[in-house]
Each structure stands twice: as structure tokens, then as C-alpha cells.
Amino acid sequence: MNKNPDIESKLTKDKEVVINIEHLKKTFGSYEILKDINLQVYRGETLIILGKSGSGKSVTLQCIVGLMIPDSGKVTVLNEDVPNLTDYELQDLRKKIGFIFQSGALYDSMSVKENLEFPLIRHEKLTPDEVEHRIREVLTDVGLEESLDKMPSELSGGMRKRIGLARTLILKPEIMLYDEPSTGLDPATSREISNLILKMQDKFKVSSVVVTHDINCAKLTADRIVVLKDGVFTAEGSFDELEKSNDDFVTGFFK
Amino acid sequence: MDQVLIKYITNFLLTVYGLYNFAVRYFKEVFKPPYEFKEMFKQFFEIGYKSLGLVSITGFIIGFVLALQAIPMLTKFGALSLIPTMISISIIREIGPVITGLICAGKIGSGIGAELGSMKVSEQIDAMEVSATNPFKFLVVTRITATSLMIPILIIYADTIALIGGFIALNIVNGESLQLYFTTIFSALTFADVVPATIKTIFFGYAIGLVGSYQGYNASRGTESVGIAANISVVYSSLLVIIIDMIAVQLTTILF
After folding, report:
1. Which of A34, A95, A32 is nearest to A63 (CA)?
2. In order of start, what are the domains of chain A with their CATH numbers?
3. Which one of A12, A138, A142, B240 counts the least CB within 10 Å of its CB?
């Protein structure tokens, strides 16, 4: 189910690993949420993580970006050993990673324009005209040019997620992490967000990890899917392969 | 019952330890670039300018009521002329800073606690962190600096308004002249009245900003935690204002 022949050929040719997780373990109190996570994400591919609520999908993403420190195991992103980076090294790495939160996580006290320029003016030396140009460019990419001066409270759920995506893309990251991008949206808006992920994937050629239960989103965007169950990845394959799996737990997502 | 008490004491000690770490981290980060001047001035405006109305009304009523209460009592002793001195010393040294400090703990402390708490709950603080911006520097350092600088100014302003309130009460009841009133006040006040009382207000501001930021920044994930953060911010920062005042008064007594 590789939807993009360019990505497919690249994957088979060089298979450069951008995210490498080995024997990742994470516990909360006495509850071991991630038992033994092993995962490689290759440059340019879109990997979907499927799993039930509370199975540790978001925790995996947070370990990748350094928001959570694993109890043990190795997390390497763009050849950097995430748990052992200093604050400054971690900040440098995070400039290359975009993270889309479930809620959009727009800064409520700032307008859309201020939300978008927030990362830009901190990490790149640009003239005000260049900042304005970049803001308009990403807003056009997500189809919300008219929302420039609106406050987050004036936006719908889908619009907030699009602006969240724009705020992340404005720094032109190499890796995108999506935490439930279509949760809480109606099917039509959900499809719009999935199409947007696909469009951005084609335009920016980023490597993406998408955590979702939305099987339509997975069908549309996935190069590869892994299934998380009881703290380990129990299945891996393309959409078509997993759809035909003999494992009831796996096929349960496709019904 | 013992278990509940142990849990309560443990939580209290953990909060004290957390506050200590937060306070140390503030001093480590406040002088390090990049400096968030834009956010800092925004907080000066939010914390300082937007509290002026409340502080003005409170200050005026304190001075006015203090004078009205003192007039009949001191008239009996023929000591009416001492009222400006009494009002000025009690307002500048104690009543002005403490009452305004408590008012600010309520308004500003709860505001910071609720704002940062809701940012935590809605993942805005995490979003800031993953966009390679230090949220502690942007949100906490700016707010604590703003409260440390703005609350002393608000208290000096409230003291001034309270003295004016006292004059108006005296003028209405006794026909006191403005010149005589303020001449008496300025000749009564000494260095030991004004300077230590002003220095302690910086600590009031610091404590209010610190507690509000700490509670909001460390709020747990549920929406209920926003209310808890705001509530605990008010309780702890009010308590700290009183404790700092007690220590400051003791030190002033020893040193001056």
C-alpha cells in the first residue's frame, strides 16, 4: 500500500534510518506501559502507529521528542541519543522535529499570526518581510489565508489542527510526529486533515510518525503500519497486509 | 487518619522542595540570554496596569477608614494633630504593603496559576518545549520578574492613594489643610519607615509570582487541576506574604 512510488524506491534503495528505538521501556508507578519497543523509521516514509487508547502510543512519541525520559532503552533521532542530550542539544534537535498535538495546542493568548511567528523569530534570522512571507506561505499550504488575525478561540477544531500543522511546518522540519491528528473531528474534516498530511508529505518530503485510531487516516497516509499491544509492537506491515492479518486484535482496527 | 496526615505532610514537603527548586532555577535562568523582553513588557502591563483599579480602591478605603476610625478616639485625648503621623506610619510600614500584597496574591497569584495551569492542561507548554523554546524562560521567568518589579510599584502607589484617602477623611471631618497634612507626614516618616517596608514588597512580589507560576506549571492533566492550581496559588502566596512580613518586621526591629 505504498502510495508514493518515489518514497518506495528511496526506501528500498538507501533506507536511511531517522528514528531508531531499541528495547524502550517506560513505567508509570507500577504500571509498565511500554515493555519492549523496537522501531525504525526511514527517511521519507510515513509510519502509522495503531493501538487502543492508553496503550502508550503518545508516550512513544513523547519519548522520541524528549518530552519523556524512558526508564531504559535507546532512542536515537537523526543520529542523536535523545535521553542523553543536554538541554541545548535537545533544543537544536527539536528544531528539526515537528510535533502535532491532539488538541492543536495553539497559544490561546496569541493570534494566529503570533502563533506562527513564535517559532520562526526565535530560530531564524529573517527580516519582517521574510517572516510575513513565510507565514502567508504556510497559511496558503493549509488553506487558511483568511485566518491570519484571528484568535484561536475563533477557530473550529479542524482549523486549530491546520494552524497547529502550519506552525510546525514553518520551521521546515525533517521529521513530523502527529498525535491523533483526526481525533474529535467529523469524518469530512478528518479526511481533510489526512489529505493535508499527505499533501505536506509530498511537498516537504518529511519522515512522519502518525499515532491514530482513525483507519481512514491510516489508509490514506501510511507507507507502513505497526500495531501496539500490551507494551510491544505485535504486528507490522502495509495497510493491505495488516488488513488481511489472521490476528483478531489487528483486524479489529480495520472493521 | 494517620495515613491522611502523613500524605498531607508529604505533599506539603514536596511542594516546599518543588518551590525551592523553582526559585533556584529562576535565578539560574533570569540572566541567561535570550531575553524575552516583549513578553516581559506584556506581563508588566497585565500585572501592573490591569491591577491599578483594584489597588486604587483598596488603598483609598484603607486610608479613609483608618482616619475615620482614629478621629473620634484621638479627639478624646486631644491628639487630633497626631492623626497624619499615625496614619502615615501605619500605612507605609505595615497596612499598605500587607493588604495590597494580599490583594495582589488573590488577583495576580490566582491569574498566573490559572493561566499556566490551563496552558499545561491544553499541552501549550509541551508545544512550546517541542518547538525548541524554553517555556520556563518564556512563561515563568517573565512572570516572576514582572511581579517582583510591579508589585512594589503597586504597593507604593496604593500607599500614596491611602494617604490621600486619609487626608480626605480628615479634611471632611476636621477641615485639615493639604499642606499641613503632608508636611506632618513627611516630617514624621524616617528612613527606617520607608526603605525596609519597600524592600519587603519586592519579596512579596517574588513570592506571589513564584507560587502562581509553580502551581500552574506543575498542574496535572485534568481540567480540575486548573482550579486547584489557582486556589492553592492564592492560599500559599497569601501565607508567604504574611510570613515574609513577619520576618521583615523582625529584621527591621533588629537592624534599625
Report:
1. A34
2. 5-252 (3.40.50.300)
3. A12
